[in-house]
Amino acid sequence: MGYYIAPRFLDKLAVHITKNFLKLPGVRVPLILGIHGRKGEGKTFQCELVFEKMGIEVTHVSGGELESPDAGDPARLIRLRYRETAELIKVRGKMCVLMINDLDAGAGRFDEGTQYTVNTQLVNATLMNIADNPTDVQLPGSYDSTPLNRVPIIVTGNDFSTLYAPLIRDGRMDKFYWEPDREDKVGIVKGIFEPDGLSQREIEQLVDTFVNQSIDFFSALRSRIYDEQIRNYIHKVVFEQVSLNVVNSTQGPPEFQKPNFNLSHLIESAKLMVGEQSRVENSQLVDEYNRLNRGRNSHQSAPPAVTPISQPSNGATQEAKTNGFQTHHVSSPHLTLETQEQIRQLLSQGYKISIEHVDERRFRTGSWQSCVNSHIDAESDAISNLEATLTKYSDEYVRLVGIDPKAKRRVVETIIQRPNGKN
């Protein structure tokens, strides 16, 4: 299999890494390079290809290592790996980098439901401290006055807007949004299918047919083509003998002939994969389960769930009696009656309102952004803020969120607008 390195990717990494090993007078060089973009576009793999091409050694930290039951462990781990990498530069006399994969998954905060732990705070603070003092990185409980070699840090992620803002500011982190263009995609996909004899025209047609798919899609497609041969092999040796013939065979591993890599066969298999993607995106079984659980819990211990009540005949104002007092409700000609009633019901039960929006790209990753700085507890404020949000973000998704301030949990999440103002 051939490998294609996108020129833009190679240029960005090479410049950042080399710049950090040079002593430029009067120039403050950002220590961290943040590579972000949508999932499956090969950010990590492109980094590995660049490292191999430039002969750079890498020390890895994964996003999953940035949380621990013991406070301070992830921050200490980052400092330890940084010092180890600095020692490698000194001992081996070559470029080395520290790479943190999926930083936003380990240290990001996606919404009010994401816990912001002590370790999350310490990881952000540690990376900020290292970026500000790259030659003076100490381990807790010890101090070594010997200056360290400067170690460039490469971090990858999908959505850096979820990270602590001071960490990603200019001066500490240089940002690079990786979105392969058509030329990059054709080059990468050509490398994936290089052993299979596809022509340049066929590669271009395959990429253009599935233009919205990520790089990983085409790699998975090549793997899927082998399924038919493997299925035939399993039936040939029977299911009960597969383990003995594959794992502990005296005859060696099975061999397969080259599958059918005709363009029509590839497109047919790819369409099946796209169909499976659509089923996943449209099933939304978790939302259904959550609604059932919220309903079940509300009958057992929580206040009653939001239920529709009768609408006023004129649609202008409505009065409701609460504890012997009359409360005047405001009404909006721009919101549906159902949305207005949901707001009233949430507030009457002691919940607070939040409003969130997201564009179509971030909708796929669930990276909603809040439209208000605090939770709303007044009906007029909720309606006016919601109207303003619908107008401002008319081409985005907008949802209404009900929050239980005592339990600190969400009780309702309702999408009230889809792109282009569709309700």
Automatic annotation (TrEMBL):
Residues 308-336 have a biased composition (Polar residues). Residues 327-419 form the Ribulose bisphosphate carboxylase small subunit domain. SUPFAM superfamilies: P-loop containing nucleoside triphosphate hydrolases, RuBisCO, small subunit. The keyword NADP does not apply. Residues 294-336 are annotated as: Disordered. Belongs to the RuBisCO activase family. PANTHER family: PTHR32429, RIBULOSE BISPHOSPHATE CARBOXYLASE_OXYGENASE ACTIVASE, CHLOROPLASTIC. This is Ribulose bisphosphate carboxylase small subunit domain-containing protein.
